[in-house]
Specification:
Helix content: 25-40%
Radius of gyration: 23 Å
Number of domains: 4
Largest sheet: 6 strands, antiparallel
Number of strands: 16
Number of helices: 14
Shape: globular
Distance between the termini: 36 Å
Strand content: 15-25%
Structural class: alpha+beta
Length: 487
């Protein structure tokens, strides 16, 4: 019996794709990675089917590359060494939303669009990263360490517990969701503690693993009440170093709910309603903008908004007199009205994704650092870009404080034409050299996607050796996403 016949016995013939036309979208993504080659696509609908597929792969010693949505950006889900693509997009049920414990139980295929709309209808909002693609998996974005724009310390890691099929075919539940009473007549309040009934937090093994040690099937995630009132403030600056200390002090004072820094390139891409607007907006916007959103829930919202706004204005007038505090953006109509709502939702599905608005393609360099050290890195990245004749003024920069400013996620975006093979090659090497340059200055690369994975693992050889030991334990036959090493 052939492989596709064995898979059809598990999921049904109509859920195994073997024609080149139907398989093609699963072999490529929006990165500069070359398309992958593989045997077929299998699309389970249940946890039992996913587990049986992993068990079959172990029996036949064939690779499996898990994918969760039709949109991927960094090459981690492109098959490297053949095998079968495990498409989990059909496992897309929102199992439960529990207001009493402020959490939701989602299958791994639930997208940001689907989740946001469901929460909106029930008076809640998700703990969301910056404008994710509407078709991205909620669970996978959390696992890939896409940090939320929300600054509440207790919501810095919204994914509380999850179910996983390890590479050896065993089913496992992390956190307190693993206790015997969970989901047996109890509500989700019994399954939201990540460390579970013991001291070991198994979910951390899965963060950033790119499907190399297990197949996540569902997760329990935090949600928040929909705010009753919101207000946005802008602090413009010519130089990035002007914004580090204000961001620190505002975050420590606890007088904002969202806080992020964007340069003119990225802010224009977000606010433009069409590509023709981009040059005009870039010319009108400051070089750097610290964006702050203050929000209040249903209980006495006017009072909270008033004292937060007053505290912010006093801090700026007393401590940061050289900086302006704007309530609108010059040259951008109604930015103060649309941004608070935008930052709690995915990017609209009917519009070109904001990172693709400039040129059609985008390669991102992400790393962790601190706000005061962040000023080291734009000159490093600019120097590398100049060496490739890439216009430094066209590099997008996004800085996301994490956990009330204890650290920050930095992201540099290099825009390019995905139809130009020569330009893709240049961008790929630019990305690699820029990664090497920022690492030499102390940047901590927590997301070493395939394009730069070898650089990271060469620098941290002992860490890579430890990861290989973990992968050998959870995936002894090396069937999951072969060619990649979890990070």
């Amino acid at each position: 019996m052939s492989l596709t016949e064995r898979l059809s016995e598990i999921v049904g013939q109509d859920r195994v794709l073997a024609s080149p036309e139907k398989m093609a979208p699963f072999g490529r993504d929006h990165s500069t990675e070359a398309p992958g080659q593989f045997v077929c696509v299998v699309r389970p609908r249940t946890v039992s089917q996913a587990q049986q597929i992993v068990q079959l792969a172990n029996e036949l010693r064939i690779g499996i590359v898990p994918q969760t949505s039709g949109v991927h950006f960094h090459g981690g889900a492109v098959p490297k060494e053949g095998g079968v693509v495990l498409d989990l997009g059909g496992m897309d049920r929102i199992q439960e939303i529990v207001p009493a414990s402020m959490c939701a139980h989602l299958q791994v295929g639930v997208t940001w669009e689907q989740f946001s709309q469901e929460l909106e209808a029930k008076g809640f909002t998700p703990i969301i990263p910056l404008l994710p693609h509407a078709s991205r998996s909620v669970i996978m974005d959390y696992l890939e360490r896409e940090h939320p724009v929300m600054q509440n310390h207790e919501m810095a890691e919204p994914l509380l517990s999850m179910q996983v099929v390890w590479g050896n075919g065993e089913l496992f539940v992390t956190g307190s969701a693993g206790v015997g009473s969970f989901r047996h007549g109890q509500n989700l309040a019994d399954g939201v503690l990540p460390t579970g009934p013991g001291p070991m937090s198994y979910d951390t093994f899965l963060y950033g693993a790119q499907g190399t040690i297990g197949v996540v099937t569902w997760g329990v995630v935090e949600i928040e009440d929909k705010p009753a009132m919101s207000k946005v403030f802008f602090i413009p600056a010519t130089n990035l170093e002007e914004l580090a200390e204000p961001a620190y002090q505002i975050l420590r004072a606890g007088i904002c709910n969202e806080c992020l820094i964007l340069n003119d390139v990225n802010l224009a891409a977000i606010l433009a309603t069409g590509p023709d607007q981009l040059p005009r907006l870039r010319a009108a916007l400051p070089s750097w903008t610290l964006i702050l959103v203050q929000r209040a829930l249903a209980r006495r919202p006017e009072e909270k908004m008033a004292y937060q706004a007053d505290a912010l204005r006093q801090m700026m007038s007393n401590t940061f007199r050289s900086l302006d505090l704007w309530e609108t953006l010059p040259g951008v109509a109604a930015a103060e009205k649309v941004l608070p709502d935008m930052l709690r939702k995915p990017w609209p599905k009917d519009r070109t994704y904001w990172k693709h608005a400039y040129r059609g393609g985008c390669e991102d360099l992400q790393f962790m650092t601190t706000l005061e050290r962040m000023v080291w890195y734009p000159p490093e990245v600019d120097a590398v870009a100049a060496g490739f004749q890439y216009p430094t003024s066209d590099i997008g920069v996004y800085i996301q404080p994490v956990q009330d400013g204890h650290a920050c996620q930095a992201e540099f975006s290099f825009f390019y034409d995905p139809e130009d093979a020569a330009e893709k090659t240049v961008i790929r090497e630019l990305r690699r050299q820029a990664t090497s340059s920022v690492m030499a200055k102390g940047a901590y690369v927590t997301r070493p996607y395939p394009i730069v994975a070898d650089l990271v693992y060469q620098k941290y050889g002992e860490y890579a050796a430890l990861l290989r030991r973990f992968k050998k334990h959870f995936d002894p036959n090396g069937i999951l996403n072969p060619g990649n090493l979890c990070f």
